[in-house]
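Objective 1.3, modelling of assemblies. Example input:
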Amino acid sequence: MTDPLPIVLLTDFGTHDTYVGQVKAVLTARAPGAPLVDLTHEVSPYAIDEGAWLLETALPFLPAPAVVLAVVDPGVGSERLPIAVRAPVPGDPTALRYFVGPDNGLLSAAVPPDARPSAPRRSPSPPGLDVRAIESPEARLATVSATFHGRDLFAPAAAHIAATGHHETLGPARDELTLLPPFAGRAEGTTIRGTVIHVDRYGNLVTTIRKEQLPQDFALDINGHSIEDMVRTFSDAPPGALACHVDSSGFLAIAEREGNAAARTGAARGDAVVLTPR
Amino acid sequence: MTDPLPIVLLTDFGTHDTYVGQVKAVLTARAPGAPLVDLTHEVSPYAIDEGAWLLETALPFLPAPAVVLAVVDPGVGSERLPIAVRAPVPGDPTALRYFVGPDNGLLSAAVPPDARPSAPRRSPSPPGLDVRAIESPEARLATVSATFHGRDLFAPAAAHIAATGHHETLGPARDELTLLPPFAGRAEGTTIRGTVIHVDRYGNLVTTIRKEQLPQDFALDINGHSIEDMVRTFSDAPPGALACHVDSSGFLAIAEREGNAAARTGAARGDAVVLTPR
Amino acid sequence: MTDPLPIVLLTDFGTHDTYVGQVKAVLTARAPGAPLVDLTHEVSPYAIDEGAWLLETALPFLPAPAVVLAVVDPGVGSERLPIAVRAPVPGDPTALRYFVGPDNGLLSAAVPPDARPSAPRRSPSPPGLDVRAIESPEARLATVSATFHGRDLFAPAAAHIAATGHHETLGPARDELTLLPPFAGRAEGTTIRGTVIHVDRYGNLVTTIRKEQLPQDFALDINGHSIEDMVRTFSDAPPGALACHVDSSGFLAIAEREGNAAARTGAARGDAVVLTPR
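Predicted structure (tokens):
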């Protein structure tokens, strides 16, 4: 028997309860020896888009092969499908990654941005992707609760893949899945409009504007503040000043050196940012 | 040598400090290779009853065999005993679980609800349970601090069991242990009185009323709010409405769909709930 | 091949984002099978001194050999060096520990307090220590971002040591490193002045005054409160009373029994404490 695959977890469960612990207990019981890696459990509650962005930006750094178990699931217990997706790994033709979670757009990172639709919708599964509906009774707990599919359904499915290396045994193939559009700013004439997709622990405001979209020189407006400084790293900004930088994710972000840009600007997740070339 | 047993952790230590990290460092040094599973470390500080409830509701999903290391210990350094309990696993006659922690009621889940007393008290150890006082000098650190038995005493004891599969070597048998009553609502005529035992990350208010106690149709009063809707899952409620559901733990809970019932009602852990049949 | 060494992590990254998760993903990919132990990720943002204190007080309980990956790095992307330090283990002449992180004083625990300078400064590397600048292109990701050396540079270096047992291959030897002074109160006549170095999850205020510095009988002043009770453990104090005790770290701390001393006194990290013998 080969070693079980690593299982990488991303949820909005928080760690205040035993929800994540119960998921890991099921994984440990059903895929003994599989390394468990917490990406984060603090996606904003019910925020599918933030979860999808966090997964997409972390993906290049994950081991391959690996199983990704992702749950942000406001529709738990409704008709949204539980799915398992097998996807190729960009840049490594011999490796595969598996994604397990609800079919609500959270798993969009399994599909490269340029193969995604221009608005969130159920989309044809692109070539190379293998999508399964999770139906096998062996890959779920004996009793499935109405509100905790992470434990009762997704964890057993992820453990099944990690332990066996197979996902096609989980259920029938599907020819479509729900995908979010690529995360990017929207060009309007010469300006670029984006939103704050994530506020990090330091109060840095990360936007949906990609570094490839940045003009040579620009001003960024957010919540009544105009920011004209662009720095390479935090220590290039004067202490206490707001400045833009390209985040380690490759997206434009706003930080205050050794301060908190979210508190300083009053901006929050979902707020608009407007970039104007100078 | 057989593989070390998984060790499942539940504490009120939080993760803001290195307390949990020091416990895990001791476990890693003394039981190398034992999988560590965090159930949660965010039990409300000193809340033995909440910790016991969180452990009891997660227990059916833990691996077996396994060691449970649980520490919510307001009496650390006082005369309360450190104990290790070996208990059978309901539904699996060949498996065993071990519980390590303070003898203050936190480990009540080692005993089925129907074998527990009607009020918190030191109780005779029921048949099938093996309770030990932790006394062996080999199963503690060379120096035991007055305030951190989790690291100095409970972690070495848990590592000892995980590494050796033995708990009876930890110290002499005890014929009693402190037990909490079963978590359940209290019937008063046709009404059922309970309390909020846990507020989860989403602001859901989980009560001590068990699903088996629910009448066909009822109203639930909490903190001046009366709730009459009972739903199977969150998405069956209108957005913004308060509704009751049976939580994944099997207890009655109050949620606001894609909202926060604790913020909405102002209710908190320990608050009373009253259920009246209709 | 021998088993990979355990890797112990301490950062100010928090767990709200995927920063820690990305670091662990890199460690899992590059040092498969290495046990990962989180000491804490909630060092106050940018607080090098608090991080150094948390590492120093946890160090005696870590496994040996082990790799410590510590990142509190306000100067990321500036000229501060990334370093890897090999240090002997006090009390165990056959064991070694490795420290990986920024050369900003955070890794001071690699050097015993009595070999550290009296103020924070770049200092000669003491005998027995082997300090390397991390330069090897094999021990970093192909692209190194300007703001996330934890993932791109420190994690690959730590994984390299854990997987190979070698740190000298990371880069050239250095004969100095940045060290903080020992954590201790400062004597002024008969009084001892210290600061609050850490506020823990329970609101306990831990000071820089070491237990070896305590007179037989004393009063402690903090933020307008004078505390005269010294107890061995929490339950020796009356409920609701402020009292001093020697923390499990060996430092003087202020607690309120089953309460929160930080909230009670309004004191915070960095505040002064003054101890006067009686």
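Chain A has four helices and 17 strands.
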